Amino acid sequence: MAASLHAPRLLPLLPNPTPSLGRPRRRQQRRFAPVAAVPPSRNGSSAGTDWCPVPPDQRPVNEYEALAASLPFSWAAGDLRVYCSRLAFTGAAFALFVGLPVAAFGGRGDAVHLALGATGSGILAVTLAVVRMYLGWAYVGNRLLSATVEYEETGWYDGQIWVKTPEVLARDRLLGSFSVKPVLNRVKFTLVGLAVSLTLCILLYANTEKPKEPFESTGPRAIPGVYSDTAARSFEPDAFCGEPDLGDQS
Q1: What value does the CA radius of gyration of the chain take, rounded to a whole number of Å?
Q2: b/e map 158-191, b = 16+ CB within 10 Å
Q3: Is the backbone peptide bond immediately before 72 cis, with ω within 30 degrees of 0?
Q4: What is the pTM of this model?
Q5: What's 180's DSSP letter?
Q6: Sequence-distant (≥ 6) Cβ neighbours of residue 158 within 8 angstroms
C-alpha cells in the first residue's frame, strides 16, 4: 500500500508541434490604410468624391441638362432639319396670325407690301427666339468652361465661389467643348442668316412703290372731289391773274 502511494502520476501526452525548419515566424501585424476625411453634404451624409458645396440646381452640369430638355433651347441641340423646320413653322405662324393683320390695318393696302410686312414680322419673331437661345447656351457654356463656379447658398446676398476639382473641371470642359460649342455655332449662323433676310425684307418694303390709282392719270393736278386747273380758271379767273395760260405752257 505504501508503494502505491509513492508511485508516479501519469500525465496525458500532448502532440509535439513540428519544429519549423526555416526562420522563426514573426507575428503578423494588421495594417490600416488611412482614410481621407470627406466633407459631409447638406443632409449630413457623405457624398464621396462627388461632394460639391454648390446646390444641385446651380451646378453647370445640371444646368446644361435642364437647358437641353427645355423649349425652345432643345431645338438648337437636336437634328438640323427639325431645328430649321420648327423655326420656319414659328415664323410662318407669327406672320400669318400677327404680322398679316397688322400690315393690313396699319400699312399699305397692296398685296406686295402686305406680303413683305407679314414676312418681316415673322423673321423678327424668329430672330428674337434665336437670340434667346444664344443667350441661354452661352451662359451655360461659360459656366462649364470656367474653372470656378459662382453660386448662392440661400439668396443673392450670400454669393460664394467654388473652385472646381481637376476631375470636375475636365468633365465640364469636355462637355462644353463638344456639346455646347457646336450648338452656339449653329445659332450664330442662324442669326446671321436671319439678319440678312430681315434687312433685305425692310429694304424691299421701303423701296417698293405703291401702284397708282386710276384717277391719278386723268390729267395734271387732278384730285378727286376738287376742280382741275382748267375748271378753276373758268370759274375763278381772278385767282390766276399773272399766271400763263395752260395752252401757253404746252
Answers
A1: 45
A2: eeeeeebeeebbeebeebbeebbeebbebbeebb
A3: yes
A4: 0.64
A5: I
A6: 152
